[in-house]
Design goal:
Elements: H1 21-28, H2 53-69, E1 74-79, H3 83-86, H4 89-98, H5 103-116, E2 119-120, E3 127-128, H6 139-156, E4 162-167, E5 170-175, H7 178-194, E6 207-208, H8 212-217, H9 233-243, H10 254-263
Antiparallel strand pairs: 1-5, 1-6, 2-3, 4-5
Length: 264
């Protein structure tokens, strides 16, 4: 994601829209820790936005081992090219509307995303607006990505001859035969291109599982452990205010500001 912003950028969208977590959970909870294992909304009663990743990661591994023990000996990855950077804002708006998010909130969010993902000319201050991509780091970005990935989940879970598993945007398909695996990969390829997302064909290799544990290790764990212990929130807020004096963020400070905002 580009990190340069105009020197006069104002923090006008900092409050952000309402989060679609509750509605998304009602629609997708049946997949939690069965087919989908990351960015799982913990609910209003939890002090945390997401369920603990450690438990989900463990269950993700268990599902791969169980599938292999039942004869699902063939596996393939389905990796999307620069997933977060290429999410189209109109596509995101389409799926947020399907989650009953009101149009004013969607318009506000897309307007903010248009600004947050813009860059400047290397020789001048004018913004270049892309209208695609969401920032990586803020908790809400994971939930927004889930609203889009829902379309792939629906395609991946169709049929009983393959097992579809997803950890963030790392997708694994297991099957008993290569032919069954290929048919599911074609279905996922079509579903991805409907979203204007494109798989990395060089990484979609069908193979026979030799060691299930190696397949589990191929999926990167999230970076949350780096945040332990939790940063002192008062100090983080104080530093954010220092970096955004008068509602403006200077170019030398933009990277520090984004990092602190992600962990505030």
């Amino acid at each position: 994601m580009p990190t340069t912003q105009p020197q006069s950028s104002k923090v006008s969208c900092a409050a952000g829209p309402a989060r679609p977590g509750g509605e998304l959970k009602r629609k997708t909870a049946k997949r939690y820790e069965v087919r989908v294992f990351a960015h799982l909304y913990a609910g209003k009663s939890s002090p945390f936005f997401y369920k603990q990743w450690q438990s989900s990661y463990r269950k993700f591994g268990q599902r791969i081992r169980e599938a292999h023990s039942k004869g699902y000996h063939y596996i393939a990855n389905f990796d999307l090219t620069s997933f977060y950077d290429t999410i189209d804002h109109n596509v995101l708006g389409h799926f947020l509307k399907a989650l009953n998010i009101d149009e004013d909130t969607i318009d506000f969010l897309l307007s903010c995303l248009k600004t947050w993902t813009s860059t400047t000319w290397s020789t001048g201050p004018d913004n270049i607006y892309h209208e695609h991509g969401i920032s990586q780091g803020p908790l809400s970005s994971g939930m927004l990505s889930e609203a889009v990935l829902l379309h792939l989940d629906e395609a991946g879970e169709q049929g009983s001859r393959t097992i579809y598993l997803r950890y963030v945007d790392d997708i694994k398909i297991l099957a008993r035969t290569e032919d069954e695996l290929r048919r599911k990969l074609i279905k996922l390829d079509i579903a991805a291109k409907e979203l204007w997302l494109f798989p990395q064909t060089s990484k979609i290799n069908i193979r026979k599982i030799i060691d299930p544990n190696e397949e589990i290790k191929s999926v990167s764990r999230p970076p949350e452990p780096a945040l332990n212990p939790i940063p002192n929130q008062k100090k983080v807020v104080k530093r954010l205010l220092q970096l955004s004096r008068n509602g403006k963020i200077g170019a030398p400070n933009i990277t520090r500001f984004k990092y602190l905002l992600a962990h505030a």
